[in-house]
Amino acid sequence: MQRLVIVSNRVPAIRDRKQPAGGLAVALRDAIRDRPTLWFGWSGQQVADCADRPLGMDTVGHVTYATIALTHKEYNGFYQGYSNAVLWPLCHYRAGLMNYNRHDQQIYINVNTLFANRLAPLLESDDMVWVHDYHLFPLGRILRGLKVKARIGFFLHIPFPPWSLMRSLPAAAALMRALRAYDVIGVQTEDDARNMNEAFAVLGIPARARVFPIGIDPDSFATCAREGQGLPQLRRLQQDLRGMPLIIGVDRMDYSKGLPERLRGYDTFLKRYPEYRGKVVYLQITPVSRGSVPEYQSLRAELDQLVGHINGTYGAFDWTPVRYLTHPLPRELLAAFFQLSSAVLVTPLRDGMNLVAKEYVAAQLADNPGVLILSRFAGAAADMDDALQVNPHDSDEIATALHKALSMSASERKVRWERLRTDVWRVTAASWARSFIAALSEVRTA
């Protein structure tokens, strides 16, 4: 069996290598289960001097993890700067939030060059190299410059914007031309593929992007929901709800997730449907990410203000309309909370896929499922017609969907859930990885 080489910005931490809890490690778990694998990327560590970073090698079973540290300057320019202050907002259609400078762009290229130089000696001619995400757009081109002949594929986990927006990035054409080095390019949705291929067409490059929608491990998440039923935190929440329906939202703190819009929608819901005051609870779980970035600090302040406004306007001495957490919950507890809830709000302004929507479906009980309220701008919306789809910019539409979800008959909830369940179990993390690897395997090498 050919060795699979995974390259990602961040390699799973040691604690996550045997029992991954989330992210790319979960998505690739089945792909690397029975296959010799090398996983290369940043260790998560920062060092003061570029000379002080030997390549770390750690083997767990048949998977070898090769890691390298970044200097503080590289971390700030490559990760915080160009990747997350330029490419991230741009790919999420928020060009106005880009904080571009040429210095960070050069560091981005330098770190990709560093990755290529340290990875190339580890590669074998018959390897299949799978590069992941926007941090590493130019890595394939640099590897080809080092005479790497192996098959190289690239998968973009986030959206890809139209060329009319993408071209606002200085040197966008050079970044697009770098993608020609990849044998297979995968994106999440038909919209993303069309946007990328139209950009290629403008630049005279043959269409390369193909759709490989990602999924979850639904059986595993359903098991987590069952196992979570015995947790004392779940029992405490049940007692505290006193039979009231629970609305839940789970997102890391990011301006792409539509969190202020969601809270405004809930505010409108309580305003338009006063009969629900004192009779419903909304739990928003929003772990803080990139907390040192000014845009994220501003977002957190806005969310704090909105939560305070809603609780101050509608709350009573024995009822808090919004419960708001800024730290993550264990996977089993989160799955159990999903199963307990009557509805989930998943309202990104733009998302590559959004696996929370699929996890929510997987956690439900067949005889009493909750209702998925989903932004039509999430990648998952394309195959989840039986969700209540909303425009997250329209607070009245969110309010109407909440009312419909909480008043929906059990029979309609079951029908909608059964159809959603079919899709969640059809397109999984395992099927996504298999389909991409199969496409890469079909490429003929020189």
How would you describe this protein?
It is a single chain. This protein has helices at 24-27, 29-33, 72-91, 102-119, 139-145, 163-166, 172-178, 190-202, 218-227, 232-241, 259-272, 294-314, 331-340, 355-363, 395-407, 410-426, 429-441; strands at residues 4-10, 37-47, 56-60, 63-71, 128-132, 151-155, 184-187, 209-211, 246-250, 281-285, 322-325, 343-346, 371-375, 388-390. With 446 residues, the chain is of the alpha/beta class. The chain has two domains: 4-212, Glycogen Phosphorylase B (Rossmann fold); 218-426, Glycogen Phosphorylase B (Rossmann fold, 3-Layer(aba) Sandwich), CATH 3.40.50.2000. The strands form two sheets. The chain has an eight-stranded mixed sheet, sandwiched between helices. It has a six-stranded parallel sheet with strand order 11-10-9-12-13-14, sandwiched between helices. A hairpin with a 2-residue loop joins β3 and β4. The longest helix is centred in the last third of the chain and has 21 residues, at 294-314. It is globular and about 70 Å long. The relative contact order is 0.11. The model has no long low-confidence stretch (mean pLDDT 95).
